[in-house]
Amino acid sequence: MRSAKKGTRAHRAGAVPYLFLAPAMALFTLFMALPIGYTVYLSLRRTKVSGLGLGKGARTEVFAGLGNYTAAVSDGELWAGWLRVLGYGALVLVLMLGLALVFALMLDAAHVRLARFTRISIFLPYAVPGVAATLMWGFLYLPGLSPFGEHPFLSADLVTFSMANVAVWGGTGFNMLVLYTNLRAVPREYYEAARIDGASELDIALRIKIPILVPSIILTTVFSVIATIQVFTEPTTLRPLTNTISSTWSPLMKVYRDAFVTGDLYSAAATSMVIAGISLVLSFGFLRIVKNRAFGES
Amino acid sequence: MAATTPPGTRGHARPSPRRPLGAVPTGVLVLGAIYTLFPVSWVVVAATKSKAELFSTSTFAPGTGLLSNLADLFAYREGVFWLWLLNTVLYAGGGAVLSTAVSTISGYALAKYAFPGRNLIFNMLIGGILVPSVVLAIPQYLLFSKAGLADTYWSVLLPQILHPYSVYLARIYSQAAIPDSLLEAGRLDGAGEWRLFRQVALPMLTPGMVTIFLFQFVAIWNNFLLPFIMLGDDHKFPLTVGLYTLLAAGANQPSLYNLIITGTMLSLIPLIALFLTMQRHWRTDLSGGAVKR
Q1: A246: distance to nearest CA of chain B, Å?
Q2: Looking at the structure, do residues A58 and A98 belong to the same domain, yes or no?
Q3: Shortest CB distance from B36 goes to which of A32, A169, A255?
Q4: Mean pLDDT score of chain A, rounded to an integer?
């Protein structure tokens, strides 16, 4: 009797985790696996136009092989977009993560004043949608409204910097908080021991705190790289204010245009697979390089 | 703490040789705070200016047009701005509640049960972190159109429920917060698995759930790409898409700038209010998640 009961309970518990996971798995299947599969499928198809392309049945969908991919890879406008995003991304990553690191170290430094106020203030843009941030800065860039004088912030030369500033403004606080919370978890005795040995605050920051932060810096970098490659909101929102941002400024904007303006779903699907591939390669590649350099020696 | 001593002045009680360094971090952080608060304070002041004042008065001089700006904004397309605000609350609130529920029960199952396929399921769910949103958003739109659900509330709500990072956090919280012995004791007392989850696990997971809720609420509130792609009817827009269309319509008409600026200012208030009132949760729970990584 007892063992039989135990048996049923073990059996019930055996199905329980699957039941608990069922909603997540259903959502995963419907809203992740299925769309990804559909993108792969679409990226291998194209429209075939027969005759004049008029009438029913004149346009049919046929297998295209890797044609859309070769077209995407050899598309000059897409490469120009990658170059623009590369320049923009390098600026954002260096400035945003550099500032986040500096602010985190300063918050954690001895004798700092106004720490609570400044920490909350610098984290505040996290609560501001990218569209709203871009609108605020966009107006601040406009000659006539700008308190910075009549600089051509949205000219072809400066627009990348102006856009990078919006992203840096929006992203620094969150990364700062991630790094700062990691620093708070370090036992204070480490620093006391170093101080007794005559280390300055700068020494402590450079030789103890930054090495401790390396894993979190790597993680925040990977997430920032993924986000930067997909930049869409800032250039799209800034576009109505200037004619220096094309509708294909970033690769993701080109995907949007191909899919919804020109209506070429197949090449949009192929391009979005290329974007996904590049962001995977970059984030894994970065992880590998950094891991080898940071942890390989020890 | 001698927090009242102004930076740079040498306190008598603590003749520390590192004293001047306190001024450097404080100065850097104050500069950072000025940088982040600058556009927000600008938009607040600019929203008070009338059309004429916006281009004529000095940047931080408050104007006299706040009430008429608000009246103009609320009159815009029969008060569609309020609808955008309500929609955003619905998407972010509903989405974050559902997301927290799904993440919590999934994380709990992954942390507290051993079963075949556990690692496979975990890796599949987590792998979503690396999938760029663009790869999902366009086919999601096409699939929703095929199901006749594009341009509905569902099309914005449903795809944002599953959030890989939240499942990951929930698993970590469950591992850390719920002792196995407690579950075992409950099982010996004859409690069913669902009751164990509801009455033993959930109360212990509440702080973690607050964090997951907040993360998701902010993420959905700030999302632009998905509703931008999914929705065509401006009565279903969230604030982000609404503000964008306002700008797209008014960028070449400086007479509409007041409307856009006032709308931007108003759109900041709810989230900043939430953020400031939940300050404590952000800090403690973020550190909880980060440390146990």
Answers
A1: 15
A2: no
A3: A169
A4: 86
